[in-house]
Hints:
Layout: E1 17-25, E2 29-38, E3 57-66, H1 70-90, H2 111-121, H3 125-144, H4 150-169, H5 173-183, H6 189-201, H7 207-219, H8 228-247, H9 251-261, H10 265-285
Antiparallel strand pairs: 1-2, 2-3
Helix pairs in contact: 2-3, 3-4, 4-5, 5-6, 6-8, 7-8, 8-9, 8-10, 9-10
Amino acid sequence: MDDDEDQSFGRTNNNILIHLRGCGGGKDTWFIRASIMIPAFPLEDDKTYIRTQNQPQTFTVLLAYDNTNSAQRIAEYHTVYNNAIKKIRAGEPLGEPESWVQHLLMPDGGHDLYWGNKVLREKRYWDAIVYFENVYYTLKELWLKSKLPDDAQVAFYDSCYSIGWCYAELKLYERALFYLEICLLRGNIADKVEYINCLVHSKDVRTMWFILSELQQLSQLKENEFTDEIISYYHFLHRRRGYVLIDMGKLDEAQIEFTKMLEDEVNKEFAQRELEYIKQLKSTQS
């Protein structure tokens, strides 16, 4: 076959390297770590000015081989579902794994929610995404028809958060931001923190604007409205602002920001590390 006819992903004489390593397991599941490298393929007819063209791409994911059959997995879920129903009726507090399905208590509806949470605990991010996306697409249809109950809304947002978390752990930040941005609709600080972290890690141009807009909103609160959670969020925003200033090359502004933090015990240790880092950067530049 001629090169022009080769439509395969790797193309002629190019290789994708995959290294598989066993990571243990038990009677139900075996874990495998897959490390994948896609080399920078030198193709004479592929002229480009993309600066990342000559950089290899690397990925690592944890895979799992499930020894159980579908009947066993369904039975396991129904056991959790029935236990959750009994505890709710008896007024007993829910622990894991019953709490995973409490917002989607339907005989079949919570199946993906349960398994998504279970494999997420095992850091099987790709597996978790599949389960949580099933929940997302199912509940999305009900949302669009205004038929989504309040409890199911919690499950919808939690699934979006979990999908975003998984994609962020896989460093697929654009996909992560799509789902994390949906979570902002419910106004939880935890959702905003994860969203900002993802913006920062991906060097998104919206990062500083979002941080400043959040600080502006907090500045309008009255003193008695500052809960412990909001105070913690306030400190987080300032730390992230300083971090982004360094990333933008605005070292003098970042230095001012972190110097102010030295007066606060909450941020002091973090600020000292960043100031030392700024000192090293300035020394290198000079």
